[in-house]
Amino acid sequence: MTKIKSLKIPTQKEMQGQALLNKKILKNQKKYLKKTSKFLLNFLIFIPLFIDISIEQKIKARPINIETLKQSNNTSFVADAVAISSPAVVTIDTQRKIISYESERLTPNFFNDPYLERFFGLKGFNQPRSRIEKGQGSGVIFSTDGLVLTNAHVVAKIDTLSVGLLDGRRISGEVIGIDSLTDLAVIQLKGLGPWPSAPLGNSDDLRVGDWAIAVGNPFGLDNTVTFGIISNLNRNVSQLGILNKRLDLIQTDAAINPGNSGGPLLNASGEVIGINTLIRSGPGAGLGFAIPINKAMNIANQLVTLGKAIHPIIGISLSRNIETNQKNFEGAVIRYLAPGGPGKKAGLKINDLIIYVADKKIISPADVVNEINKNGIKAPLKFTIIRNEKKLTFFIQPIDINDLDFSI
Question: 3-state class of 111 per DSSP?
């Protein structure tokens, strides 16, 4: 059996003593809280006074220059840039005749049966009908000789064109060269001039994040300006699902609309850095693309001097070095060889890995294309490849794409 200790009950005198002690402790706590509150109140009052004094000192030390403020509000580097090149931005109006036959809706030669023609009285029903199709685009004068750079799709298959200038003049023009592979064309203005000319920049110096200013005539609205930045460089058109062009494009978020095609993309200094050519519609709309001006001028100079552009190739299709047995190397893997191409004739094979062209180390297929373009068609080019873990060297002379014989 467990033994329970007896509880000690305090006497009345002991209880009165404990009550006095508790009262004394409470009184001391109130005094402490009063002192603490007074200190905190003084501290909080002091902080705003200190801040006010600090701000006042700064304002006195750095007075606002009202004239500078007015000037910054009334000027814009965009306006200054546009003023430099806009006189050379032109509107291009085109026309072409479209001929159609009503009988094309039915079986061919249906109404050419003389018995049906005599019975139904349909003589002349299938006579050709014509209509005029009009188009509009933009361009930029790049030479005081009256040479205009625009897109090939703006002037392709047209009968007549006229060019409108910012000063109100309307001039007839002649297409002197078209390159559909890069979507570029050159127009020669007819007349004595004088012709304004836009300054050209260097597209090789562009960086992602640089300012971009698009100028053109969307929907027939002359000299419309939109503003943004360079969103990406060297955007290959194959990434956009376009397989019949040979372009690396500047991507921008500056709005480019129908009618802007062929107009200039400017930098903050008002220099032309690209030729507007594509817009993204549908999902992801708001993306615009321009041909770098260095590439565009290379093509334009060939169109002026030769009437056509040369596109060197060796007849191969490439992909990045992914999922191959040659993982220790970067480079470009050959996926296809044109039967009559220089690459096939020189001995290249599918799955060969190109690691050097000339002395340039190859990281991606675009590097191979760039080196072939720089070399041209007049001299052989050195290719270093890996095949079955062995390094081989080939000297191959590129040819123009128009000279490639696919029938072999």
Answer: helix
Amino acid letter for position 152: A
Per-residue b or e along 105-139, where b marks 16 or more CB atoms closer than 10 Å to that residue's CB: eeeeeebeeeeeeeeeeeeeebeeeeeeeebbbbb
Q: Where are the domains of the chain?
A: 87-121+133-189, 203-306, 312-403
E strand or H helix that includes residue 293: helix 293-306
Give DSSP secondary structure letters for 351-386. T-EEEEETTEEPSSHHHHHHHHHHH-SSS-EEEEEE
Q: What is the pLDDT of residue 311?
A: 92
For residue 297, report the phi and psi dihedrals to the nearest 5 degrees: -70, -30
Mean pLDDT of the chain: 79
Specify the residue for token string 């050097």. 356
Cis peptide before 312, with omega less than 30 degrees from 0?
Answer: no
Domain at 203-306, CATH from 2.40.10.10, 3.30.390.60, 1.10.10.10, 3.40.50.10380:
2.40.10.10
DSSP-based three-state secondary structure for 128: coil
pLDDT tens profile 184-226: 999 999 988 789 999 999 999 999 999 999 998 877 777 789 9
Write out the catalytic residue numbers.
153, 183, 261
309: nearest Cα among 157, 179, 184: 179
Does the predicted TM-score (pTM) go above 0.85? no
Torsion of CA 296, 298, 301, 307, to 10 degrees: -90
Cβ neighbours of residue 122 closer than 8 Å, sequence gap 6 or more: 111, 116
pLDDT per residue as tens digits for the range 142-159: 999 999 999 999 999 999
The full DSSP string for 14-83 is: HHHHHHHHHHHHHHHHHHHHHHHHHHHHHHHHHHHHHHHHHHHHHHHHS---HHHHHHHHH--HHHHHHH
Superfamily holding 312-403: PDZ domain (2.30.42.10)
Q: What pLDDT does residue 218 have?
A: 75
d(CA 267, CA 271): 6
Helix, strand, coil content of the chain in percent (nearest 5): 30, 30, 35
Answer whether 155's CB lies under 8 Å from 185's CB. Answer: yes
70 pLDDT band (50/70/90 cuts)?
very low
